[in-house]
Design goal:
The structure holds 2 protein chains of 2 kinds. Chain A is built from 19 helices and 14 strands. Chain A is an alpha/beta fold. In chain A, strand 4, helix 8 and strand 5 form a beta-alpha-beta unit. The radius of gyration of chain A is 31 Å and the shape is globular. In chain B, the strands form 3 sheets. Chain B has a 7-stranded mixed sheet, sandwiched between helices. A 3-stranded mixed sheet of chain B has the order 1-2-11, covered by helices on one side. Chain B has a 3-stranded antiparallel sheet with strand order 10-13-12. Classes of the chains: A alpha/beta, B alpha/beta.
Chain lengths: ~475, ~525
Amino acid sequence: MDGSDYSWAAKAGDVFHSYYEIPFYHLIVELALVLFIIKILMSKSTGSPGDETPLTEKEMQKLIAEWTPEPLVPAGAADTEPPVPVITSKVGKYVTVNGKECLNLATMNFLGMIGKEEIEDAAVASVQKYGVGSCGPRGFYGTIDVHLLLEEKLAKYMECEEAIIYSYGFATVASAIPAYSKRGDIIFCDKEVCYAIQKGILASRSTVFYYNHNDLDHLVELLEKQAVEDRKNPKKARVTNRFLVTEGLFVNTGQITNLPRLIELKQKYKFRIFLDESYSFGVLGECGRGLTEYYNVDRRNVDMIVGSMEFSLGSVGGFACGSSFVIRHQRLAGQGYVFSASLPPLHASMVIKAMDYFDKDLFSKLINNCKIAHEALEAIDTITVTADPLSPMKHIRLIENNSEEALREICNLARDNNLAITVASYTSTEIFKKEPSIRLTVNTELTEEEICSSVKLIEEVIHQYTSPSQDISEDS
Amino acid sequence: MPPEERSSEAFDETEEVFANNLDSTTNGHLPVNEKVFEPEVEYDETFEDPPFLSIMSAYLCLFLLVMFGHIRDLLRSWGFDKTMDTSEFGNKGFVPLYNDFEAFYTRNVYQRVLHYWCHPLAGVPGANIEIWDRKFGSFNENIRLQDTKRNYLNIGSYNYLGFAENNGRCSEETIKEIRSRLGTTTASPRSELGTLKIHEELENLIAGFLGKDACLVFGMGFATNSMNIAALVDDGCLLISDELNHASLILGARLSGAKIKVFRHNNMKHLEKILKTSIVEGQPRTRRPWKKILIVVEGIYSMEGTSCNLPKIVELKKKYKAYLYVDEAHSVGAMGKTGRGICEHYGVDPADIDILMGTFSKSFGAAGGYIASNKDIVAHLRKESHAQVYSSAMSPPVARQILASTEAIMGVDGSGEGQRRIRQLKENTRFFRTELQKRGYILYGELDSPVVPLLICSIARLCAFAKTSLANGLAPVVVGFPATPILGARARFCLSASHTREQLQWLIDLMERCEPVLGLKLSSRHKQKANS
């Protein structure tokens, strides 16, 4: 307060001093100007009273009384709720759905970690030592020694400088993207990326360009377009960060990204690569290190790899790894890391234990099962299969009359025959609408016979579902 | 707010506006009904500014800090000072990843004091904690964990009811859950094959506990906020948010696409003004009426210890036909006679609050969050909430811990343990707050709030406080700029039912002993009282 008073006084002094020095005609001109301004102001205030008379209190009350808001959610949502299957057993190789024991080809327990007794032992030991919750964010007494141990182990396994763990898989990539990409930055992104990435991009408020699924030529087109823009405005281009965000293995299509080509483009167009390996970590590559190992490229070319601990590791949470230069920043800027309670120690202990099971044979068994399932599914002529042969997630769609109701009915029929499969679920707010599909998931615990008989069962069930309608059409 | 303002007259007035309104039930509002809970207290909250000298010294210290930072940066660029920055691989000619200010602050401020945070615990975050010793390089780089640990009094964890424990009924139940019932995780979202029997059991119990029709649980508290608001409001809606709302609420609001307006912390006049002008003026540019208006507040603000003025907010919400979303992350379990949160504390009917949100990572000693509301809203969220559709379900052991602790709070388990803890927490809170206030410290928040921020004002003093505390076996949370305003550096004490009176007395004595060095008694109000 005092400081500002002083500065005003000083300013006034300066003004006075300057008036002392200027010629006299200058003062006359300025005086005329001041008079002119006063005249303008006066004329405006005496102008006609237009529409801008403020509302009276009564009028405002009337407007408020008239306003009728929409209901918070559409009325009657409770009546149209689709029944969700309820599970009453462990979700392992077998699962009891609505009281029926089924072979499980629906959950993403790729390596069969769920239900392993030693991992459960680790969880129990952890509860006995640390309790369940951590009761605080990482900064404020929520860091438990197992968190540090796990971060070290993940970094070592991924041969990276540093890893950071989050308490929720979805929040990992959704927090990591806005930690770096800000308003004004540019993100190039595949159209079929998972919902978490879409939300992360939205949270970053960056400009986003979506390229067609796995179509890197389209990406080059977009990059070239941007390069032209940059040449027009080099000043802005010098402070605009560019990122490429994509998934290693797309959960929505089961396809694999062409990483070597992306790295080539990275050097040419100077963007950083964030690779979401939530579904490819522990799946692709000889030792399950994901896409970088699968293509045998230098992992340091990818600026950040994001993984999930919820699928192949059979626990809860997610992680990001890369150079310390990149990753450490999230410890202050990753919202889901800074502002959330840390991962319950029992989940961290489970991951530490689960990583001991990582083994080349396990990964080759998974890939083998994926190939078997793919081959068997391709042989069915009433469906299309969207997935890479190496992907454990296979999207199945009916060639004729593919609809969500039909697929749900097929899942129910399969469940009656002791096979659990599920329709991939989406909300209505996906940026690019998704064609409904059954997402079949393969894991290491299945034998070749089980896969083949399951696929056969699916074929029969589809036939069973489609044939009655065929009968009718033949009759008419 | 003075108590007389909250008399029945205020409610009558609301009813009048309601009478104007064609259909008062379209908004999901219920008419003013009989009080479900008896109010425990009237709304009362004060903020005291630090004295002028403290403000000056805080600015001076920040100025010195920034100046030294610049000098060191200069020395670094000339090669005289060691640089601790890590570097990128390759990426030559790329735009720098971090902006200058961020990097400057991390390098010259955070890097120098980072040893006051992220302490690695060696066990349960209960009343006493064991922390592993760490060794730091001379620039706080290269942190190495030692194999020795020390004991501290934990006054930093959000363990309000003391359910963070590794023995007792809760952890026994959790272990049983892992061993014999539903295992550890699902690897599938709720809407696919991730809905377990235990989720339904938990949702029914929590809905009953809070006095709501239905409930939905999520695997992460932060995500409960950030991923559900978008399913409630969107483009064309208005979201009115308290300026000190938690980051998760801000993120959720941003993701929803609704227009966001912010009112000053707990300032009901400002809130009313925004409500009034917003309805009158309609949407910006198009001037269409708003589709709906959602007020978002927290029960207890985690950094301020203050609670929202719920009776007044409910009154305003009814008057202006807005919807209300209350985040009870820190208040559920910790407030109210039976732990039912801020509604019970102020005697507000839970039916008057459209959405009650809370987390399980604090009072319940677990992880995750919930949304309790009416049947329609919960059914809608089940379909449209991102957390239900895309991320894996809450894990069974965590769900069991919540079930067991809720049963204890509700007294279903028959031990009376929950009720004892709620009483203990309240006693601890009142004792601790009155003792500190009496001694002339500036505390934020109301008498029953277990989050007790102690205003320290300057960053240097904050670090001195952290250093002395840790050296004496006390583990507090210290927070400064940018998490608080520049002059708002504070230590935060989170009280717990597991603290004993002796422990709190010891803590107060410790602060009294350190007072000559630290000088934390900033309250001038107390001095005036002592003089008069």
